[in-house]
Amino acid sequence: MPSKHKLKTKTTSKEGSEGEASSEVETEHMEEANASSRTSEANLLEAIQALKTHFTTQLQEIITSNQEIKDTIGVFLERLTSAESRISNLEDGVASLTGKETSIQKKIQDLALKVDELENRSRRSNLRLVGLPEKTEQGDTAAFLQIWLIEVLGRDAFPSPPIIERAHRLQGQSVPGGPPRVIIMKFLNYQDKMRVMTAARLKGKVMYNGRHVMFFPDLSAEVVKQRKQYDQVKQQLRNLNINFGLIFPAKMRIFQRGNRFLFHTPTEVEEFIQKARQQTDGGTRLRKTESA
């Protein structure tokens, strides 16, 4: 019996030693685990701190960049406001200049009309002689015309001999075989000029050595330009045997069947010609029907 007890005591003692050794191992493992855990936490904290520092730096750069952008936008806004103000001032100036330009253009047109009127008034006593051969006047054109007008138009056309202040041919060289240069004559009295025009119209054709010469009023370039617009309708009126005449500055008077018509533009004359042709065609058809 005593031996069994001793054996049991030895066994228990052995088991206690093994338990202590196991406990120590577990403690070491726990300490190692705790140390490893602390190391991981430290590394994590260090990494987080590094990220925080990096993000802080980046955020500060972004904030600085945004501030620079805001400052730049502010400068641009100031410049844009200044530009808008200048553009507005320029637009106001342009509008003002446009109004002034319109007013100036109207004044220029009015002045041009007045100058043209004055020019035509200065030419009021002038006549243009077309078709008189070169060198006919033999030097003194005015003296020649004063005698020749009475001879060709008749003494009855003039209560007293017409007085011509001056006369000359237009500048330029005469071309052999070409038309003679136009003669411009200025009468002392406007009535003498009108007597020459009336006598020439009543005579029909004025001749000199077998050549047809014609008298025309001396007008400004602007009035001549306006009158040339009637050239086409003038030919149409001649074809229809309709009498017409131009009156100052550029109006057309038409005589038909004892009636007088006054037109201010070539378009009005064309409308009149169309109606006259319709009447002529209608009368022709009527006569043909009656004869049949």
TrEMBL record:
<dbReference type="InterPro" id="IPR042566">
    <property type="entry name" value="L1_C"/>
</dbReference>
<feature type="coiled-coil region">
    <location>
        <begin position="101"/>
        <end position="128"/>
    </location>
</feature>
<feature type="region of interest" description="Disordered">
    <location>
        <begin position="1"/>
        <end position="40"/>
    </location>
</feature>
<feature type="compositionally biased region" description="Basic residues">
    <location>
        <begin position="1"/>
        <end position="11"/>
    </location>
</feature>
<keyword id="KW-0175">Coiled coil</keyword>
<protein>
    <recommendedName>
        <fullName>L1 transposable element RRM domain-containing protein</fullName>
    </recommendedName>
</protein>
<dbReference type="InterPro" id="IPR004244">
    <property type="entry name" value="Transposase_22"/>
</dbReference>
